[in-house]
Design a protein that fits this description.
Bound molecules: flavin-adenine dinucleotide
Number of domains: 3
Largest sheet: 5 strands, antiparallel
Number of helices: 7
Distance between the termini: 16 Å
Strand content: 25-35%
Radius of gyration: 20 Å
Oligomer: single chain
CATH architecture of the largest domain: 2-Layer Sandwich
CATH class of the largest domain: Alpha Beta
Structural class: alpha+beta
Shape: globular
Length: about 300
Amino acid sequence: MPSEVAIEDTARALRGIKGITVRTNELMAGHTSFGIGGPADLFVIATSISNLSEVMRTLHELGVPAVLLGNGTNVLVRDGGIRGAVIKLGGELAELQAVGNMVIAGAGASLATLCRYCADHNLGGLMFAAGIPGSVGGAVLMNAGANGGEMADVVRWVLVVGYDGKVAKLGAEELGFGYRSSRLQDRRCAVAQVGFQLEPSEGAAVHRALCEVIQRRCRTQPVAQRSAGSIFKRPENDYAGRLLEGAGVKGLAVGDAMVSPKHANFIINKGHATSRDVLALIELMREKVAKKFGVYLETEIVTLGEE
Ligand SMILES: Cc1cc2nc3c(=O)[nH]c(=O)nc-3n(C[C@H](O)[C@H](O)[C@H](O)COP(=O)(O)OP(=O)(O)OC[C@H]3O[C@@H](n4cnc5c(N)ncnc54)[C@H](O)[C@@H]3O)c2cc1C
């Protein structure tokens, strides 16, 4: 993959599947919080488990690589774009349903919508996730967390669709959650739906707690600027932000990519940053911390696509 002909042939095959959207040469800069990224050959929005399964199977049979994209808030897409297909979830796959103390969430729903929905249904347990701008699927795959909580605390099961189109339900114990990681990252599958086990709570109190967490984020993080959240994972027994601040990286820039003056673990796109700028700045930040503290920082963000 892929010549222009192969892309058009694949798009034609996919357009035979009911309920999906298929576009070609879709710029990923419009789908990432960094606002960076070249074109994906194929961009598909799946809206149900059955059409997602058909999309996956068709791509697999045609030998076209595919990658899932949530809200694009933890990815850096390279300037050359993505060969093959990028799949996003919408329609039924972004819906939420409360069943007793559980919420069944389509993986395409945003965490913000999920948090508000839980508060409206008098359910607590997800307040830690307030202000994390990702989707349910991306958050589960990354085991997103903050404020002492993480997805692993509340996920009970996950419905996944493999690249062969097969659907499987995995219990939390099969997901191998670790710090900002899960076994789903090695599985090459789409997370389609997630069952969250929550606890009864007074809705107004949950809404208040969500607001407080969001206000704290606004004070400490450059939430109004284009970024992908924390660039580096927390090293053992320390904080990446503390080490980076100590290494003096705030304000350091390569092209239009700059380390946020507000939070040393955030890179912001000041306007026209390229993935090259961001990657070069990441290496500079890493070198400065290694030189000063002897700690090698591991990146948290996922890099997709080609130069
Ligand atoms: C301002 C800001 C603050 C942030 N704060 C936090 C924080 O406090 N804690 C934290 O953990 N993160 C934080 N993040 C990072 C990010 O929001 C989370 O990691 C989020 O959960 C990623 O979700 P997403 O939908 O954007 O995933 P994406 O960025 O779209 O994708 C991330 C990875 O998940 C895969 N993926 C996405 N959806 C699916 C799916 N349905 N099935 C299979 N694979 C999928 C992608 O292929 C990619 O590998 C922050 C980001 C920003 C911009």
